[in-house]
């Protein structure tokens, strides 16, 4: 009489697992968005400092050329120092590619948004009763394994075989 396929508690546990997975996707999505914002902010600062140092280097060079200051030694040292800083910042811009990092995080966040929306639809369908997923076990070659069946939608157990056929040895220890 204890048929686990008709136990509403099983549906509630499955719904709780789906909600937990949804929460993890939401967290990952938000983390990638924040990391993209941080990387883009670093990129903007990097570019701003590089532009400012380039302008300062050009200004000190023009001052040296036109001899506006009487002591050309200090002016040439300032020009050299600014040129060194510009070179250092240019090397940093080539090494730390914050714009590419930002774009990569935004791309992942965009993909996670689609997964997030799919989870919302799944949760809504499960709560409305449109999809009544109840786990049950079926004997297979290596023992029992859970298989899901949708209410009125037929047996989904062939999905496991399809995955094993397309990815042989995947998921086995």
Task: Note down, in words, how this protein is organized.
By secondary structure, this protein is mostly helical. The protein contains 4 helices and 2 strands, in the order H-H-H-E-E-H. A two-stranded antiparallel ribbon has the order 1-2. Residues 1-6 and 135-173 have low confidence and may be disordered.
Give structural attributes:
disordered N terminus; 4 helices; disordered C terminus; two-stranded antiparallel sheet; rod-shaped; mainly alpha; 173 residues
- How far the N terminus sits from the C terminus, by CA atoms, comes to 35 Å
Oligomer: single chain
> Based on DSSP secondary structure assignment, what is the total number of beta strands?
2
Q: How would you characterize the largest beta sheet? A: 2 strands, antiparallel
Topology:
Elements: H1 8-66, H2 72-95, H3 98-128, E1 134-140, E2 143-149, H4 158-166
Antiparallel strand pairs: 1-2
Helix pairs in contact: 1-2, 1-3
Produce a short descriptive summary.
By secondary structure, this protein is mainly alpha-helical.
């Amino acid at each position: 009489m204890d048929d686990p396929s008709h136990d509403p508690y099983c549906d509630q546990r499955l719904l709780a697992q789906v909600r937990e997975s949804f929460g993890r996707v939401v967290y990952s999505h938000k983390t990638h968005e924040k990391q993209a914002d941080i990387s883009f902010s670093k990129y903007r600062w990097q570019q701003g400092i590089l532009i400012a140092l380039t302008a300062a280097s050009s200004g000190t060079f023009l001052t040296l050329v036109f001899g506006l200051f009487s002591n050309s030694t200090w002016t040439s040292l300032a020009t050299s120092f600014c040129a060194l800083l510009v070179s250092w910042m240019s090397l940093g811009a080539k090494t730390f590619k914050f714009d590419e990092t930002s774009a990569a995080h935004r791309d992942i966040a965009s993909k996670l948004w689609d997964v997030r929306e799919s989870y919302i639809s799944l949760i809504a369908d499960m709560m409305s009763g449109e999809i009544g997923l109840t786990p049950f076990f079926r004997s297979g070659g290596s023992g029992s394994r859970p298989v899901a069946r949708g209410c009125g939608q037929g047996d989904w157990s062939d999905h496991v075989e399809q995955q094993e056929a397309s990815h042989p040895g995947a998921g086995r220890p």
